[in-house]
Amino acid sequence: MDEKNYEDFISTVSHELRTPLTSIRGFSQTMLASWEKLDDESKKKFLKIIEEQSNRLINLVENMLCVTKLQSARDNLILKDVYVKPVVETVISVLKNQYRTNSFEIDINEKTPAILADKDKFQQVMTNLIENAAKYSAEDAAVTIKVRPESDFVSIKVINTGLEIEPEDYEKIFTKFSRLDNPLTRRTQGSGLGLYITKNIVEKMNGEISVASCDNTTTFEVCLPVSNIETRMQCNQ
Ligand SMILES: Nc1ncnc2c1ncn2[C@@H]1O[C@H](COP(=O)(O)OP(=O)(O)O)[C@@H](O)[C@H]1O
Ligand SMILES: [Mg+2]
User: Which of 70, 102, 169, 172 lies at a 20 to 30 A Cα distance from 196?
Assistant: First the structure.
């Protein structure tokens, strides 16, 4: 990272850290100073904010550690055969608890072969994309994960309805700390690091990621190589 980028990075990170910290401090100070005067409901509301802001900080720190690790040569991936379906099912079972009003649907071709991937990292990719699809859509919107085998790769699409992403933002959302300026994004919290991390991981696993958004539908597509491609090609000949 050159000096200018480094300065930008530090200033963005400091700002991202300061906002939740200021709010945690403010609400705890208010509670301590006015404990007797506050009714139970207000106390609960303030504690809820403190909890949310602490979660936001933990998320941010975890994401930043992830970015640092991605940039270091020591972050070795362990590429093995990974089946997409069980990973997506695990991710959905976790997210269902957090996004109770959304519905999640897997549409998978049962003949889909294993991909060559790092299982934990692939799970992180799916978590980021499926969580985004739930987060940036209407509260009761459906999120569909469509998995199809192609010649030498598997295509995984995460589809949701909601606000469209403008074509001029397609590249921007994959860069560090970028969040779009729209109501669904303002309503939620996030560091803007998720898609940057996701793209990095996908490319390290020799895959590709892209986005397309039209008719109020947004599709993120990840393509990852099928495992044992050489063997498979030889078998088919
Ligand atoms: N499925 C989606 N539909 C609409 N907008 C999205 C979607 N996924 C991501 N975005 C936009 O891209 C931005 C960057 O996403 P991401 O890197 O995951 O960061 P974060 O979720 O922390 O904001 C989001 O803030 C949001 O504005
Ligand atoms: Mg995200």
Answer: 102
Choose among 130, 137, 115: nearest CA to 185: 137
| Structural domains in the chain plus CATH codes | 3-71 (1.10.287.130), 80-234 (3.30.565.10)
Q: How many CA atoms lie within 13 A of 34 on its CB side?
A: 13
Q: How far apart are the C-alpha atoms of 103 and 202, rounded to whole Å? A: 26
What atom in ligand 1 is closest to the CA of residue 133? 1
| Cα 139–Cα 123–Cα 158 angle in degrees, nearest 5 | 45
Tell me the pLDDT tens digit for each residue of 84-120: 999 999 999 999 999 999 999 999 999 999 999 999 9
pTM for the full predicted model: 0.86
Q: Ligand 1 pocket: which of 70, 99, 126, 136 to mutate (most atoms <8 Å of CB)?
A: 136
Closest protein CA for atom 9 of ligand 1: 132
Cβ(164)–Cβ(137) below 8 Å: no
Q: How far is the C-alpha of 67 from the C-alpha of 174, rounded, in Å?
A: 13
- Which H or E run contains 69? helix 40-71
What would the two tokens of residue 119 be?
């299982």
